[in-house]
Design brief:
The complex is a heterodimer. Among the domains of chain A are: about 5-125, 2Fe-2S iron-sulphur cluster binding domain, sarcosine oxidase, alpha subunit, N-terminal domain (Ubiquitin-like (UB roll)); about 160-280 and about 410-475, FAD/NAD(P)-binding domain (3-Layer(bba) Sandwich), CATH 3.50.50; about 315-405, FAD/NAD(P)-binding domain, CATH 3.50.50; about 645-735, 2-Layer Sandwich (Alpha-Beta Plaits), CATH 3.30.70.1400; about 835-860 and about 875-965, Beta Barrel (Elongation Factor Tu (Ef-tu), domain 3). In chain A, the strands form 14 sheets. In chain A, strands 9, 10, 13, 14, 15, 16 and 30 form a seven-stranded mixed sheet that branches. By secondary structure, chain A is α+β, with helices and mostly antiparallel strands. Chain A has 24 helices and 51 strands. In chain A, α5 (about 175-185) packs parallel to α6 (about 220-230), α5 (about 175-185) packs parallel to α11 (about 455-470) and α18 packs across α23 (about 825-835). Chain A is elongated, with a radius of gyration of 38 Å. Chain B has a single domain (about 1-85), classed as Folate-binding fold, CATH 3.30.2270. Chain B is built from one helix and six strands. Chain B has one helix at about 40-45, and strands spanning about 1-5, 10, 15-20, 55-60, 70-75, 80. In chain B, β1 (about 1-5) and β2 form a beta hairpin. The longest helix of chain B is centred in the middle third of the chain and has 8 residues, at about 40-45. Chain B is globular and about 45 Å long. The two termini of chain B are about 20 Å apart. Chains A and B meet through α20 of A and α1 of B. The complex binds zinc ion (ZN). Zinc ion binds next to loops of chain B. Chain A: One of its GO terms (molecular function) is sarcosine oxidase activity. Chain A: It comes from Prosthecodimorpha hirschii.
């Protein structure tokens, strides 16, 4: 219990105490606390156990770089695992728990791993558990349980999420000094700006309160800039908003924490200019047992003190290698913390700084390093010695060790979509590279301030202004403020953790290099360096420098591993946004949907449409319903909803030329009032689509497409009109939503149509097969097409969508006298299989040519059309192509396995693989034939009608003898549909 | 990412359908007898596409907009649109 709350200071509201629970105990913090700062102030220093060795761990960092303090927040459906305590705002009633420890954080059974640590070297899991392969899932489960990476809630997420897409002329990521300077400068160049910061407030963390900018105190400057941004009316300020990814086309994904009805809001912002002013993460210095609770980054301790008045210790040793870190010690001393010593790895320190230490009465050990910490569950001291003289040790007593090995630009987003980082020896860190043409940084992203490796306040302001004004791309190289490259000595002690979250030590990295790993990316994967939820933000160049040193190389020479999105974890709820449940894939319903639902329809998803599959009556099985519906169409009359068909209105003098180009058959001879069936190909000759197009008048046509192809055919027609045949006078209008459509089919269909009192003639001479009439039907304006998909006498009736339910109701009412029943897609499919009609996606599978489907004679030889030239290719005219055939089981009581392969007799005994002759494409029970039938594609099938094959299904372990037959099972002469 | 439609200006990529490389269809010039024209030209048109790291002339369809097909040059390395779109 070392942490405490300073009596004054910080940005917390002491008048607003907040009660919360951690690991079952009640604590009190204040408004303005994070869970991390409140735990420090309450003296809680043991927060977690480490991933591999289950060593006790405490807080190290202030923000997204925290590796240790992973907690579960919330309960029940709102429980969220793997949350960093540093990023949890304290709210009343907050409940949080440590994870990765069992049964409790204080007494962890898995801590025995620490005692056998020498037995768990790099790649231990790979080496030990990779054999036998089949056992890996078993081992993996055990490892994951022991690792305790939190538990996801089992209940549905009760919270609401939003997704917002927007565009900005300029997006500034990071609202510290550089970001604010950039935003202000951009006001003159941009009409719309978005400025985001991960914290509650703008102004950043890296600037001392007493600093001055443009002659103003820092705080006043921040407020003045914010006021100007707000007054401009151009700027959206988003606090509590973290950019997690930078994607192609300069789109940035961000997560905003929203207090209110919405929990998180995900922004996808397209920006013409992106200023990356994300600051820097502090780099720790390494020493033995540097993972003990009480070892913390200097800047983190300073931030906890200055923002929350939370003080992480009573007696402190600062271990640093640069001047800036000293301020943490001076700040803490002013708050009442005893400074046991400042240990500086540099041999010489500027006299002014040394004098400040003397004045403050702080013991100053220049040219020294910490060898290791002392203590058990908490730091009680440390051992230091002069760099290079490990024998001359000095013991120091303290409960807090602050380290600072310099700063690493938080340039993660810079690399997400192609930018490169450059090793900057001046600061011992990776900085965004200057523009270098292709493969260089994304063209619109500019780094500024600490993210660009500029740590002096004046440089931050200047680089921010330049970036906001659009003057620089990439990071402009700036002169070094202090010339010496940093020193970061690494001692020989054991348990020097480079990656705290994944328990990767200096020794582990050395072992990986001795085992032959060279590239940073390979060592990373082998040792899991930087692969935790913190994405190794804390590691900085520590890992790279150790890997380089083990190979006798410089850090610059071996490169670095590339950070990838997300910058910090994004919860699934935010990714899904509001698009869950009914909104996941919004359903399209037809005008008659309510009637279907009220009359027992079972719906099938057809693309985004809901279509009645069948209407089951009480006591019926699904199969019973389908057989009844199909039989009723064949014997009396059925009614089905075909509103989902794609419908396209074509107008202009050149429509026939357009249709000639996209269909294999000719269209210029089609007379007004007549319909024609057509087939479309892709340029590679494969059948893409079939459907009916009707000529309404000389220059007006009406096309229907299959339900699933509506959008694709529209694009195809527009491409033919605008690109291939540029200059055609045709207007193409999609009218799928404007027309409701229903089909009546069966021998009594004409009687039913007549009962609706059409004001146009419907006898066979006036309205023959493949013709069209328009007029009033049941008093409603309608377009009637005499076309058939069932092989029966049939009519498709089109009305305005709003009139469709009335037309449907009129048909149902009049249909009673004729035995009318509604039928769904299953009965429709049964009847089209009986008629041998192909469907794109089943028989026409993207490899099927017109001739394969028996449509060779339909193909015009007198005109050019899409795909024509491909039909002449030698492979496309081979006699052993797979052709559409009908299939009947030799034993009429047996069914045909769906998706079965067609093989020849005797071939099953041949050496594997068994030659496949073809496959089954569609299967149905035919009520008309009282047996199972199928359509299939079989090599050379048309020449083999009457022969038997085997339908083999390894999935159902069936081998069913089938006979090849003509695919048209019913009424091959077409008498019924012309009746 | 936003795409420059010649009719509507810069619009979100989600409104567009990609149409592949802008290749000229040779079919109109081919004789109706397939054997009278070499397979090679047609094969190039149907199957063979360059895959440049750099400027790429390609077609886009403003499906959820004005339904214009247009050609535009995009640098495949940066996704920057390099030319004004033409219909
Ligand atoms: Zn457009």
């Amino acid at each position: 219990m070392s942490g405490w709350r300073a009596a004054s200071g910080g940005r917390i509201e002491r008048s607003r105490p907040i009660e919360f629970h951690f690991n079952g105990r009640r604590y009190v913090g204040y408004q303005g606390d994070t869970l991390a700062s409140a735990l420090i102030a309450n003296g809680v220093d043991l927060l977690a156990r480490s991933f591999k060795y289950h060593r006790p761990r405490g807080l190290v960092a202030y923000g997204a770089d925290e590796p240790n303090a992973l907690v579960e927040v919330g309960e029940g459906a709102r429980r969220e695992p793997n949350v960093k305590a540093t990023q949890v705002r304290l709210v009343p009633g907050l409940v949080a728990r440590s994870q990765n420890c069992w049964p409790t954080v204080g007494f962890d059974l898995m801590a025995v791993n620490d005692l056998i640590a020498p037995l768990i070297p790099s790649g231990f899991y790979y080496k030990t558990f990779k054999w036998p392969v089949a056992a890996w899932p078993f081992y993996e489960r055990l490892i994951r349980r022991a690792a305790g990476m939190g538990r996801a809630p089992a209940e549905p997420d009760p919270d609401a999420y939003e997704t917002v897409h927007r565009h900005a002329d300029c997006l500034v990521i990071g609202g510290g000094v550089a970001g604010l300077a950039a935003a202000e400068a951009a006001l003159d160049h941009a009409e719309s700006l978005v400025v985001v910061d991960a914290l509650d407030t703008f102004g950043g963390l890296g600037t001392a309160e007493e600093a001055r900018i443009d002659g103003q105190p820092y705080g006043a400057w921040v407020e003045a800039v914010l006021a100007r941004l707000r007054a401009s009316g151009k700027v959206t300020l988003l606090p509590r908003c973290t950019a997690y990814g930078h994607y192609d086309g300069d789109q940035v994904g961000l997560i905003e924490e929203v207090a209110g009805a919405v929990r998180l809001r995900r922004w996808m912002i397209d920006a013409d200019r992106i200023v990356l002013a994300t600051g820097a993460f502090e780099r720790p210095l390494l020493f033995g047992a540097n993972d003990r609770p009480g070892v913390m980054l200097a800047g983190a301790a300073q931030a906890y003190l200055n923002r929350h008045a939370a003080v992480p210790g009573r007696r402190c040793v600062l271990y640093a290698n640069h001047d800036g870190a000293y301020e943490a010690a001076f700040d803490l001393q002013r708050a009442g913390v005893a400074i046991a010593a400042i240990v500086d790895a540099r041999a010489t320190v500027a006299e002014a700084l040394a004098a400040r230490c003397r004045t403050a009465g702080i013991r100053h050990l220049a040219g020294h390093m910490i060898a290791q910490s002392r203590g058990r569950r908490r730091v009680t001291g440390c051992v230091v010695h002069p760099v290079g003289r490990p024998d001359a040790t000095v013991a120091l007593t303290c409960d807090l060790i602050l380290t600072s090995g310099g700063w690493n630009p938080a340039a993660h987003l810079f690399t997400h979509s192609g930018g490169r980082l450059r090793h900057d020896a001046r600061i011992g860190a990776l900085v965004p590279d200057a523009p270098s043409g292709p493969g260089g940084p994304p063209p619109r992203m500019v780094a500024a301030g600490a993210c660009a490796g500029l740590f002096e306040l004046a440089d931050c302001v200047a680089s921010g202004r330049a970036a906001g004004a659009g003057e620089t791309v990439g990071a402009a190289p700036m002169p070094s403020p202090s010339g010496e490259p940093p020193v970061a000595p690494v001692g020989t002690a054991s348990k020097q953790f480079v990656d705290l979250q994944n328990d990767v030590t200096v020794a582990d990295l050395g072992l990986a290099v001795r085992e032959g790993y060279r590239s940073v990316e390979h060592v990373k994967r082998y040792t899991t360096l930087g692969m935790g939820t913190d994405q190794g933000k804390l590691i900085g160049l520590n890992g790279v420098e150790i890997i380089a040193a083990a190979q006798g190389k410089s850090a610059a020479a071996i490169g670095n591993s590339r950070p990838r999105p997300p910058f910090s974890p994004v919860t699934f709820g935010a990714m899904a946004g509001p698009f869950v449940g009914d909104l996941l894939s919004p359903a399209r319903t037809t005008p008659m949907h309510r009637w279907h639902a009220a009359h027992g329809a079972f719906f099938a998803n057809v693309g985004s449409w809901r279509r009645p599959q069948f209407y089951r009556r009480p006591g019926e099985s699904d199969m019973d319903a389908v057989v009844r519906e199909a039989s009723n169409v064949r014997r009396q009359v059925g009614l089905t909803d075909v509103s989902t068909l794609g419908k396209i209105d074509l107008q202009g003098p050149d429509v026939a030329r357009l249709l000639d180009h996209v269909y294999v058959n000719g269209w210029s001879t089609l007379q007004p009032g007549r319909c024609r069936y057509g087939v479309m190909l892709r340029e590679d000759g494969a059948v893409m689509e079939d459907g009916t197009t009707t000529r309404l008048s000389d220059d007006r046509w009406f096309m229907t497409t299959t339900t699933g192809n509506a959008e694709r055919i529209l694009a195809h027609l527009e491409r033919a009109r605008q690109v291939d045949l540029a200059g055609l006078d045709v207007t193409i209008t999609p009218v799928t939503e404007q027309w409701g459509a229903m089909a009546i089919a069966g021998p009594r269909a004409r009687l039913l149509l007549g009962a609706l009192e059409p004001d146009f003639a419907i006898d066979n001479a006036a309205l023959p097969f493949m013709s069209m009439a328009e007029g009033r039907l049941a008093g409603i304006a309608a377009r009637v097409l005499r076309v058939s998909f069932s092989g029966e006498l049939a009519y498709e009736i089109y009305t305005a969508s709003g009139d469709a339910p009335a037309m449907w109701a009129a048909l149902v009412a009049a249909g009673d006298a004729f035995g009318l029943m509604p039928y769904g897609t299953e009965a429709m499919m049964t009847m089209r299989i009986e008629k041998g009609l192909f469907v794109p996606g089943f028989e026409a599978d993207g490899r099927t040519l017109p001739d394969d489907l028996g449509l060779g004679r339909m193909v015009s030889t007198k005109k050019e059309f899409v795909g024509r030239r491909s039909l002449g290719r030698s492979a496309f005219t081979a006699p052993d192509r797979k052709q559409l055939v009908g299939l009947m089981t030799v034993d009429p009581t047996r069914s045909i396995p769906r998706g079965a392969q067609i093989i020849r007799y005797g071939s099953a005994s041949l050496p594997a693989p068994v030659p496949m002759d073809g496959h089954v494409t569609s299967v149905a029970f035919s009520p008309e034939l009282d047996r199972w039938i199928a359509l299939g594609l079989v090599a050379g099938g048309r020449a083999a009608l009457g022969e038997t094959r085997i339908a083999a299904s390894p999935l159902t372990n069936e081998m069913v003898p089938v006979m090849l037959c003509d695919p048209v099972f019913i009424d091959p002469e077409g008498r019924r549909l012309r009746a | 990412m936003r795409i420059p439609c010649p009719c509507c200006g810069l619009r979100a990529m989600a409104e567009f359908t990609y149409g592949g490389a802008d290749v000229t269809r040779p079919a109109a010039a081919l004789p109706l007898d397939p054997s009278a024209a070499p397979d090679a030209d047609w094969n190039d048109y149907v199957y063979r596409r360059d895959n440049p790291a750099g400027p790429h002339r390609e077609l886009w369809f403003h499906a959820a907009g004005c339904r214009r097909w247009f050609a535009v040059t995009r640098d495949t390395r940066t996704n920057a649109f390099l030319s004004e779109a033409v219909a």
